[in-house]
């Protein structure tokens, strides 16, 4: 290939970072790459939750349409967003090495899921994550939260930062008023007699005690409001200005999203174990789509495809397709290649997490796709599909 590969991507920070990683790897293989930002249905309905859009592929189909129409050569997706019914003329040309598949609990103060107080409000945009949280901690409240990774974290941090800003502002006003009062007293005391000065010395200990109390009360505010604001990270500054309707004590999102956006350095996060919080099918992986049988598809596969990641995500997507879930369903599927087997963990929940169908099974790596279908059929017979359909109707 001699022409630059036109690579479609969403315009969010996470999507651009992911596409940037793909671009860099392709350039390392001596391909010229041009990134093309495309707005998707999911981007245009920012106030809606994914499950409320009524269909899968809200972040995918607009990009793939550009590929099919020839406007771009390929598209970069989060694998978990890609529907299992890929158009006939399209192919997942490459699955790069998978990132961290786990979920993460993010809190303002580092509290773990086990130690969140009863009644704490946990935000999530996923039916699966909400059901898993309630299955593990039925005493917690789960509320929907929408937005990109940084938006959700900002919504979590906003109330505490706004409260602190208000307290600092009030304390600064009080200090300025006290300074003005002391100046007035100083002017007056300068004209006092020596006798009155002696009397003031007698009362000095009382004045000092009041001053000490004031100093202790304001010790945490050793910066001006402006200095404090400048000391905040860009994320915290944005959170300070964000309006929120619901105060969250924690949010659950993909660990890889935090890592790829660099937010792990700015938040308190707990990686949730994949055996109790089974990830969404394909979570942590990327999917690069292109036109079937094209030179671009071949080039992408040769440069980017990671065999183990493809086997694991294909196993997960086969189970998802056979059970009938779709990317918005309350289902977790996680496959891991272990020698000559593929270990597959599956959890299917009711919306509130009270009912569950789940199992772990080892599949032969030489026949993983067929055995994954058999596994899914067994889960379907045990009521997994019924749980999914019920959750979608609610």
Can you walk me through this structure?
- This is Hydroxymethylbilane synthase.
- Belongs to the HMBS family.
- Its EC number is 2.5.1.61.
- This protein folds into 3 domains: 1-98 and 285-305, D-Maltodextrin-Binding Protein, domain 2 (3-Layer(aba) Sandwich), CATH 3.40.190.10; 102-278, 3-Layer(aba) Sandwich (D-Maltodextrin-Binding Protein, domain 2); 307-394, Double Stranded RNA Binding Domain, CATH 3.30.160.40.
- It is globular.
- The protein starts with a strand and ends with a helix.
- α5 (149-189) packs across α9 (234-240) and α12 packs parallel to α13.
- The chain has helices at residues 13-28, 41-44, 61-68, 127-136, 149-189, 194-202, 204-217, 225-231, 234-240, 255-260, 295-304, 307-323, 368-381, 384-393; strands at residues 5-9, 33-37, 74-78, 90-94, 103-107, 121-124, 141-144, 250-254, 268-271, 286-291, 331-338, 341-349, 356-364.
- It is of the alpha/beta class and 394 residues long.
The percent range for helix content is: 40-55%
Element-level helix/strand string = EHEHHEEEEHEHHHHHEHEEHHEEEHH
Query: How many structural domains are formed by the residues?
Result: 3
CATH superfamily of the largest domain: Periplasmic binding protein-like II
Q: By helix and strand content, what is the structural category?
A: alpha/beta
The gyration radius over C-alpha positions equals 28 Å
Oligomer: single chain
- How many β-strand stretches? 13
Tell me about the biggest sheet? Answer: 5 strands, mixed
